[in-house]
What does this fold into?
Amino acid sequence: MTPGARVQAAITVLDAWVKGAAAEQALTNWARGARYAGSGDRAVVRDHVYDVLRARGTCAALGGGDTGRALMIGLLRMQGLDLEAHFTGLGHAPQALDTAERMGPDHAPDPSLDVPDWTLPLLRARMGDDLPAVLDRFRHRAPLYLRVNLRKTSRDNAIARLAAEGVTAHADPGAATAVLVTSGARRVKSCAVYADGWIEPQDLSVQRALAAIDWPSGRILDVCAGGGGKALAIADACDAEIFAHDAAPRRMADLPLRADRAGVRIDTLAPGAAAARAPYAAVLCDVPCSGSGTWRRDPEAKWRLTPARLAELEQIQAAILGQAAPLVAPGGLLVYMTCSLFLQENEAQVARFLAAHPGWQMVAQAADTPLSASDGFYHAVLRAAVA
It folds into this structure.
């Protein structure tokens, strides 16, 4: 595909997204009808679409509208690319630009356009004067971080083996297990170093939070395990007996294979089975949240979020904490985590729990933002009363 044809394909996908289709479904539908598109073409079209979603407001302002065509005009203008070379009207390229499309605005758009306006006060409450810098970060793709499985190898050995397989990476000082990939990110999951369980994708912010916790021996439950990345990291860091549970067990489908690859054991529990193994020395609650700390990784999420959905998530978070607390042994730990920047999902949620559960104590809490790590992430460690 020519560069112009790739832009036209992105326009088609974005038009479907503007009409309400999910981005991934729109991309899949396009790809099914574009058998001629190679893997490189599909990757570029996907990048175009997600680059627009990260900076939708800017792209609309620079492109003069909210159609797929206008958004792609805005994206190329934002990226400093030659519009005329892509909008030629030749072959499968989009129609040539008209006079109005060639003009463009006479001032740079405000980056606050790139998040829903109702979320700005919530972001400002966390970021204060750093809000403009975070909004700028949201416009750009998040880097890929890997966690090195120290049970199998050293960080230096993992980096060297990645390099031999065409992936450039370096150690990050933010966590002893963290490796930042600087080129070849799309090759990682096809590398032998990944297949052999030496590495797992995991953001720096998550690695920092997990490393800050003194995980106890005994039984540890990851009650909202999802794919199990945090359970794997905990299993690598300590000798506890690890259990993984999720209300949607299909999310854990790959966890046994990943655990076997990493050389650790994680017992997966069916819904409702966690209580039968209680009490636990620690229970991790990585709860459903707004995902506002990961908006450059999943930019579509910010446009789907509504005030009503945020209120619903806060109720879900409180319910999970309330259900998890009785599973913790006396003197044990309840670890609360979100990938949110919003105070009401984090500090305020924990404060409400403590007010409603006498005897529990705050051990520690900390938050990263896209300025201190690649994602925004919060964790709190609470200790149950000793019987």
